[in-house]
Amino acid sequence: MSPEAPAKLPRIVIVGCGFGGLEAARALDGEPVQITLLEKTNHHLFQPLLYQVATAGLSAPAIAAPVRHLFRGQANVTTLLGEATSIDAAGRRVLLADGGALPYDHLIVAAGATHSYFGRDDWAPFAPGLKTLDDAFEIRRRILLAFEAAENASDEQARRAWLTFVVIGGGPTGVEMAGTLAEIARHTLAGEFRRIDPASASILLLEGGPRVLQAMPEDLSAKAKRQLEKLGVEVRLDARVTAIDSAGLEVKSAAEAHGTSVGSYRIDSKCIVWAAGVAASPLGRQLAGATGAQADRAGRVVVQPDLSLPGHPEISVVGDLAAAQSHAAGREPSPVPGVSPGAKQMGRAAAANILRRLAGQPTLPFRYMDYGNLATIGRNSAVVDLASPVGHFKFSGYFAWLFWLFAHIYFLIGFRNRIVVLIDWASAYWSKQRYARVVTDIAPPKN
Questions:
Q1: How far is 100 from 103, CA to CA, in rounded Å?
Q2: Domain count, the chain
Q3: Could you list the active site residues?
Q4: Are 347 and 35 in contact (CB under 8 A)?
Q5: Which of 204, 210, 308, 329 has CA atoms 20 to 30 A from the CA of 98?
Q6: Are residues 286 and 264 in the same domain?
Q7: Same-domain check for residues 101 and 185
């Protein structure tokens, strides 16, 4: 009598190795499952520090780690480099850009988000967003070459356009980018040019709403604005961009939008950074169409309390792609914010629910643990809104900056990355220099 064939392990496909996908795969370490992790780049990116690469504060390897290296010791994970183009929900397959397909028994979709220009994708060439390392390299190139172009400019009007930097969007990315640009102009480049004074650069932060960092309490938002202005950033609130071209942008004030006065004006700028909108990966709408699920205005897939899709318990959606709600005991459901802690917690919860399904147990609703928000503004400046079991804490300034610094170092992936970032930041703090200021494409900025 022939021996019995070994039992077939459940096949779990995870699309995306951002925070959600990474945590889902790690949560399944040692479990009797067969995991295929599909990622369209070869690295996991620590996005909260991506602006540091864009502003020459850190090199790319300091905030990115090879996916294969991260899972070298996890035997039940197979890593594949590729891009998912669609989900065949009926056939339980992930279809790939190269024509291949990955069959699955359970699927976790963590494809993340991209830029949203609110229907004006034609603005993208003139105002790049910041989501990938390629984005960071392009923004860094534009920033550094803007100062070079100003040094070479033959007239004052052209020079002023090159020395006017505009950041659109007053969320954490926009605030951090604007503050760091001010530091570069005031400190990093001091004494390096002969025809221009980098400190004379104008750094503008445009926010369409009434305050920056709108997810934070109003008092911290006000402190952040004051700290930005102290660094030399001009913050313009209720300023809505209506047009962007190669020479600058058009802005409409809230007063005109409300019909009370004329408030349109133009800003001549050759270096614009977009930090105003986020949209879910296009895979979200395709998945919603394939499963009968709903997608919200941003393209996020509306999930059930356990993060699965209606009628498709084998499919879970996590991270920026999911329109999820937290179902804490005794409280009304509340939206989960699109931040890295939320993505991590969703990844772990989705993995745990898959294991419960395999064990024949009921799944659990997702409960988001809110630990607060934090954002750095510049050297020695940050704001922290911290939630803890013993109370709620809000603080700003130098100690908030230290807290922000060590929190980000702690959550960086990989021991080497933490050491590199700590050394680089210590060096930059004492020297006020940024040493990742290398560009290889010295053609004029692509706008």
A1: 10
A2: 2
A3: 176
A4: no
A5: 308
A6: no
A7: no
